[in-house]
Amino acid sequence: VTHPLIRKLESFTRLREIEREALLDAIGPVQRFGARVDIIPQAPGADSISLIQEGLVCRYKLLPDGRRQILAYFVPGDMCDLPVSILKQMDHGIATLAPASVAAIARERILNLTETYPRIMRALRWATLIEEAVTREWLVNVGQRTAFERLAHLICEMFFRLRAVGLTDGEACELPLTQAELADTLGLSTVHVNRTLQDLRGEGLITLRGKNLIIHDLAALQRAAMFSPNYLHLGSDYDEQPGEGPERSDPLPSRMRPSR
Amino acid sequence: VTHPLIRKLESFTRLREIEREALLDAIGPVQRFGARVDIIPQAPGADSISLIQEGLVCRYKLLPDGRRQILAYFVPGDMCDLPVSILKQMDHGIATLAPASVAAIARERILNLTETYPRIMRALRWATLIEEAVTREWLVNVGQRTAFERLAHLICEMFFRLRAVGLTDGEACELPLTQAELADTLGLSTVHVNRTLQDLRGEGLITLRGKNLIIHDLAALQRAAMFSPNYLHLGSDYDEQPGEGPERSDPLPSRMRPSR
DNA sequence: CGCCGTGTTGACTATTCTCAACCCAGGTGG
DNA sequence: CCACCTGGGTTGAGAATAGTCAACACGGCG
Q1: Average pLDDT for residues B5-19, to the nearest whole number?
Q2: Mean pLDDT score of chain B
Q3: Which residues of chain B neighbour A143 with C-beta distances below 8 Å?
């Protein structure tokens, strides 16, 4: 059982043993949090960043009237840097969704690491590029896709990300999210999420009971979501070919089709 | 008339004369593009980044079935780095909206600059943090806000950004976007953008004819959008106080109010 | 045992989308 | 110089997607 961070980084750059050791060695003290708590105040300060080791954490933003948008999920192996927070008041929050344990890594250690091991530098740079790509994809998701597609897409993404760090079991994984949380990440109401989830189940694509997600037909789910794992840049895709995204060859009942 | 890049960077860090010169000196050859053309193929390769000097450029993503989401606008002074494009196939495109002239800056020059002038390094880091903050804000926009609020918010943002680089004239500026383009950035249909624009006009908040935007009541517009320029980190806000976002004190007809 | 957080449902409403037509201004070519 | 064409912008009518409100079910936990 390798550390999720290593697993993640190795999904795009192979690391040497020394590098792996150096990385693990840099990992500092661990803190545990319950579900649904803000970790900003308690998080290590400006001089270190947080590495999620277990659980599920999110970045979110609140509007003055209470609406909430979840901006990103952090799964084990992800690091959430809080650089903005230091420079001035934070313009968003970081909170756990499921109970989580997060380790601090001193910024200084990182600097050292990246200096001495250029491969680690590259890997970390990649990781942040991917994080940005994910945010962009979310924007596409809420901006362009129907409720059905959005949910399907999010589920695909989480499945692939979790699989990349070894947190899946066949076509199943844990997804410890309430429907209200899904709603806030997809820009939908909870009621609509509920009904859309039923549609997904109705199509025989997934089962989602409590925190347990089972994907019955990954290919179909990807098609329904027009999901192409491309942007996650997983799987040793160093010199990948142009490669098509999945073609939408019309596998779904018309009511779930695009619109605009 | 200082260069927009300098203006932008100086809106958060004061620079010394030498630093300004060094920056300007690093700016390479300029390329001009017409409206609505992709600049990816022609853009300078991996070894340099693009600095927008004039015009309006965007980052966008296409779905296989033709839907398009605009992910970011680049105004003069913004740099669009295309780091992902090199690593592998680009997962999005960069195109002009209005005719634009963009300069190349060699990556190497940047490295030198940041090494010798730490203040430039900080300024550039800030710039990218802000770019990310803007993306997050867009996600909030499409995820949580009504059509009316979205448009108002986007208009506020563009106005502030353009003002930061000296491209406004009082409460007016150029916003060379078609309604279809607005639609693709806000996740709305063009028809709805049209109607919402009429509402904005109807409220006496703005005038938008062709490329010319006039804001008649900036404060009211900000309130309507729940816009707080905070996230843009403009205005020498080095040690700004906590400061509230604008309170929504109910200035608008009920049909434009929140929802979920 | 009762409470609370989640999930589920129904009935109704509202926001937003689609389609299709029409208008207008600017630019082109005859 | 004018007719035409085209790309935006605007409208109307009808439909669909998504939201609200309110009630209820269910399971775990104090």
Answers
A1: 94
A2: 88
A3: 69, 142, 184-187
- pLDDT (tens digit per residue) in A81-95: 865 555 556 788 999
Q: Which residue, among B149, B247, B161, B237, has the nearest Cα to B200 in the 3D structure? A: B149
Distances (CA, A) of A192 to A186, A202, A225: 11, 15, 17
Contacts of B231 in chain A (CB under 8 A): 91
3-state per-residue secondary structure call for chain B: CCCHHHHHHHCCCCCCHHHHHHHHHHEEEEEEECCCCECCCCCCCCCEEEEEEEEEEEEEEECCCCCEEEEEEECCCCEECCHHHHHCCCCCEEEEEEEEEEEEEEHHHHHHHHHHCHHHHHHHHHHHHHHHHHHHHHHHHHHHCCHHHHHHHHHHHHHHHHHHCCCEECCEEECCCCHHHHHHHHCCCHHHHHHHHHHHHHCCCEEEECCEEEECCHHHHHHHHCCCHHHHCCCCCCCCCCCCCCCCCCCCCHHHCCCC
| pLDDT-based confidence at residue A243 (cuts at 50, 70, 90) | very low
Is pLDDT above 50 for B207? yes
How does pLDDT run across A42-94, given as a tens digit for each residue? 666 678 899 999 999 999 999 999 999 999 999 999 999 865 555 556 788 99
Average pLDDT over residues A184-197: 98
Task: Give the B window 134-153 contacts with A, CB below 8 Å.
Answer: 135-140, 142-145
Helix (H) or strand (E) holding A222: helix A218-225
CB contact under 8 A, B135 and A139: yes
For residue A229, the SS3 value is: helix
pLDDT at A127: 94
Region A161-181 average pLDDT: 97
CA A201 – CA B103 distance, rounded (Å): 51
CA atom of A191 to C1′ atom of D24, Å: 14
The Cα of A232 is separated from the nearest Cα of chain B by a number of Å equal to 10
Q: What is the pTM of this model?
A: 0.91
Which of 41-80 (A) contact B at CB < 8 A? 59, 61, 63-65, 67-69, 71
